[in-house]
Write a structure and sequence with these properties.
Low-confidence stretches: 1-8
Helix content: 55-70%
Order of helices and strands: HHH
Oligomer: single chain
Number of helices: 3
Number of strands: 0
Distance between the termini: 35 Å
Structural class: mainly alpha
Largest sheet: none
């Protein structure tokens, strides 16, 4: 079936609320987001040969990482 999203306090309109809740105990600022993205981009470069797929995954990971920023 299709999943329906409901509004949650602090929800900026994208990403799963449970993921945000699971990371709530960690201070995640733009510098932490960018450090995580650097690791993810390196992994994508090493493991995903298709450039278009790499870019799509990178964009999706960034959207999620940005959603988790709480500082």
């Amino acid at each position: 079936g299709s999943a329906r999203r409901t509004a949650h306090p602090g929800d900026r309109g994208s990403g799963p609320p449970r993921l945000r809740h699971a990371h709530a105990g960690f201070a995640i600022d733009p510098a932490a987001r960018d450090a995580w993205m650097a690791c993810m981009n390196q992994a994508l470069q090493e493991l995903v040969p298709d450039q278009v797929l790499r870019q799509q995954l990178g964009a999706a990971f960034f959207k999620t990482a940005d959603f988790l920023c709480n500082q």
